Structures are given as structure tokens and as C-alpha cells.
Amino acid sequence: MLIGKFISFEGPDGAGKTTALNSVVADLTPQLKNMLVVTREPGGNRISEAIRNIILDRKNTEMDDRTEALLYAAARRQHIVETIQPALNSGKLVLCDRYVDSSVAYQGAGRQIGVDEVYQMNLFATAGLLPDLTIYFDIPSEIGLQRIMTHRTDEINRLDVEQLSFHKRVRASYLKIAEQNPQRIKVIDATQSKADVVSNVEKIIYQENKEFFK
Ligand SMILES: Nc1ncnc2c1ncn2[C@@H]1O[C@H](COP(=O)(O)OP(=O)(O)OP(=O)(O)O)[C@@H](O)[C@H]1O
Ligand SMILES: Cc1cn([C@H]2C[C@H](O)[C@@H](COP(=O)(O)O)O2)c(=O)[nH]c1=O
Do the record's keywords include Signal (predicted)? Predict the structure, then answer.
């Protein structure tokens, strides 16, 4: 039985998810201690991190779009089985940097495989496990990419170097997913200062998970 809470952080490249997540974790850890599980996709365990390295390696230029979609889904399956599901079963608050919405936006819309097909494939991979809450960091593609190219040049991956049109499709898809799922997805303006972004994220987490902060 799932008794914990599952929160995903989503957004285009360079939106500031990881930066905000690190600050939120530093702020929440004194209160939540070992009730908090922080993880990321693709990754979170040995097998999924190995798949991550294959997907994101800029040398893998010949990778087929559907192969890419399947690899993300395979990494996700292993992540659920090894990390997310056990944490939820023991009542933890799981904070995950990216999840299924990333596949729908990047592979479904960005790669133009089709959002419905990619979503259906992920229903198989996840057996229907969706986050209770998703915080979507919205940012124009140009600003997100600019942040990466200016500050994070050492970590630029195979997806980051896609054309601007790819990244614009990804953002448009995220906005559509958010519009279609207003109960689950809360949108944050990620062009704000780091402090304001973190404060907005924490407000949402407190509001939606009061049982963890008694
Ligand atoms: N609110 C902000 N204002 C300005 N710069 C920011 C802000 N948040 C993060 N940054 C900077 O933007 C860059 C990208 O941030 P970060 O790695 O957190 O983004 P991300 O959403 O996790 O990206 P990706 O998904 O591509 O890994 C970093 O150099 C970070 O310091
Ligand atoms: C989970 C997931 C991720 N992606 C893309 C999004 C990013 O470009 C990279 C991951 O890098 P990050 O620095 O950890 O954000 O992978 C994707 O295309 N599809 C997915 O399902």
C-alpha cells in the first residue's frame, strides 16, 4: 500500500529545478530528517545511473528516438522498484528531479514521437504510478539554455545541445500537460530570483503536505 507522498520537479533544461531542490532539501531536512527521500531521473540507483550515462553521452549521436524513449522508461521502472515504491511504502516524502512528464514533453513532443504513445508506454513502465504533486518550473527556452551555456558548460548533455525548436516544443508540451492536470501540477515562474523560486516551492510543499509538518 502506498502511504507516503510523491513529489516531482519538472521543467525545461536550465529552469533551476536542481538548484531549488538542493535548497529545499537543506531547509526541510531539520524538520523531516529521515522521512525525506531525494532522488532523480534518469538515475537514482546503479542500473538507472548506468542507463543515464548511455542516454546523455554526447558521443551517442546515432541513438534512435524510440530507443531513447525506451531507455528513459527502463531507467524509470528500475527506479520505481528500487527506490520510489519502497520509500512510499514506508511513509516517506519522495522528492524526485524529473519523472514521466519529462518523457511526454521531451520524447513525445520534443522528439515528435507522439505524446499519447509515450504516455502509454510509461503507463506500462510505471504500472500507473504518478506523483501526488508536481512542481513545474516554467521558463522561456532561450533563458534556460542561456543559463546552462553560461554557468554549467562542464555538464552539457546530449539533450541540452538540441536545437532551440526542440526545446520550444518541450516547453509548449509542459504547459499543455500543466493545463490538463491543474490538480496535480503547480506552475512556478522560474525566471524569478533563486530565493523567490525556493520560497514558492516551499509554500506549495507545506500547503499540500501538511501531515508531514505537524
Ligand atoms: N532563479 C535563478 N536565476 C538565475 N540563475 C539560476 C536560477 N536558478 C538556477 N540558476 C542557474 O541556472 C543554471 C541551471 O540551473 P539548474 O542546474 O538548477 O537547472 P535544472 O532545471 O536542474 O536544469 P537541467 O534539467 O538541465 O539539469 C545553474 O547555473 C544555476 O546556478
Ligand atoms: C527523465 C527524463 C529526462 N529527459 C532529459 C531532460 C534533460 O535534458 C536530461 C536529464 O538531465 P538533468 O540534468 O538531470 O535534467 O534528460 C528526457 O528527455 N526524458 C526523460 O524522461
Answer: no
Nearest residue to 14 via CA among 180, 191, 188:
191
Mean pLDDT across 114-134: 98
How far apart, in Å, are the Cα atoms of 148 and each of 12, 55, 124, 144? 11, 19, 33, 7
Domains of the chain, each with CATH number or no CATH: 5-213 (3.40.50.300)
155: confidence class by pLDDT, cuts 50, 70, 90: confident
The ligand 2 site (C-beta within 6 Å) comprises 13, 40-42, 72, 98, 102-103, 106-107, 157, 159-160
**Is the predicted pLDDT of residue 2 greater than 70, yes or no?**
no
Average pLDDT value for residue range 2-28: 95
C-alpha cell belonging to residue 135: 512542481
